[in-house]
Amino acid sequence: MSGKPTHHILVCASFRASGQAKGVCNRKGSTDFLPYLEGEILDRGLDALVSSTGCLKECKKGPIMIIYPENQWYAEVDSEDKIDEILDALEDGEVAEEYAL
Q: Which of 29, 37, 85, 91 is deepest in the core (most CB within 10 A)?
């Protein structure tokens, strides 16, 4: 990837200002899926950058994943199957409605 990526995928890691990762998304394993997400992006040849974030203020629906510039917010992203469906939709220029906020 060179320059700005086409897509930026944000995954809530519940980081607080102090740097501590504590919160619903983190406890539900949001960061456990980062390697899988990165691998899928590479395997699919997607021009995307993944970043873990501080709290995204949707704790009751976490783990949260956002895709920009589409501004697609996804809730309860807690399995490889859900990540696959979301990335399939992204590749097709669609939204994975079942998980969309």
A: 37
Would you state the structure tokens that stand for residue 76, as one six-digit string? 């309860």
Total domain count, the chain: 1
In a domain, 71, yes or no: yes
Q: Does 2 fall in a domain?
A: no
Q: How far is Cα 81 from Cα 66, in angstroms, rounded to an integer? A: 17
Distance from C-alpha of 43 to C-alpha of 53, rounded to nearest angstrom = 23
pTM: 0.89
* Residue 1 and residue 47 in contact, taking contact as beta carbons nearer than 8 Å: yes
In a domain, 49, yes or no: yes
Gyration radius (Cα) of the chain, Å: 13
**Amino acid symbol at 24:** V
Average pLDDT of the residues in 71-86: 97
